[in-house]
Design brief:
The protein is α+β, with helices and mostly antiparallel strands. It has 3 helices and 7 strands; from the N terminus they run αβααββββββ. The chain has a single domain, classed as 2-Layer Sandwich (YaeB-like fold), CATH 3.30.2310.
Length: 118
C-alpha cells in the first residue's frame, strides 16, 4: 500500500473564506498600519479609505507565502481613479498594512506587470 496523499484544498472555498474574513475586518476596522506604511502613506497622500477600497476590490498581483510572521500579498486597485499598490498580510485578528504606493509606470506595465530590467 502506497503513501496516502491528502486531497488538494478547495481553493475556491479558501478564497471565499479569505474574502469573508477581509470584509469582516474592514467592516470592524480591524486594520493595523505598520509604522513604515504610515510614513509612506502620509508622504504619498494615501488615505486609509483608499487602502480599504483597494483591498476590498483590487486584484492580487503577487503572493509572498514565505513572509513572516504572516504570508502577504501585493494587490492592485484604484481609489478615486488613482492606481494604488498595497502590500498587506492577514492575521487571525486583523489586516496588517505593510506598505502602499502609487505604482511607477516606468516599472509597471498597466500597473499590473513588472517591467523587465535592462
Amino acid at each position: 500500500m502506497g503513501v496516502q496523499i491528502p486531497p488538494a484544498p478547495n481553493y475556491r472555498i479558501l478564497s471565499k473564506i479569505m474574502i469573508a474574513k477581509i470584509k469582516k475586518f474592514i467592516s470592524e476596522r480591524k486594520v493595523q498600519i505598520r509604522h513604515h506604511a504610515r510614513i509612506q502613506m502620509r508622504a504619498r497622500r494615501i488615505r486609509i479609505d483608499d487602502i480599504l477600497e483597494v483591498i476590498s476590490s483590487g486584484d492580487i498581483l503577487e503572493k509572498y507565502p514565505d513572509d513572516m510572521p504572516f504570508p502577504s500579498c501585493l494587490i492592485y486597485g484604484k481609489s478615486n481613479n488613482r492606481p494604488i499598490h498595497v502590500v498587506y498580510a492577514l492575521s487571525d485578528e486583523e489586516i496588517i498594512i505593510i506598505t502602499a504606493y502609487e505604482p511607477d509606470p516606468n516599472k509597471w506595465i498597466n500597473f499590473r506587470f513588472r517591467r523587465k530590467l535592462k
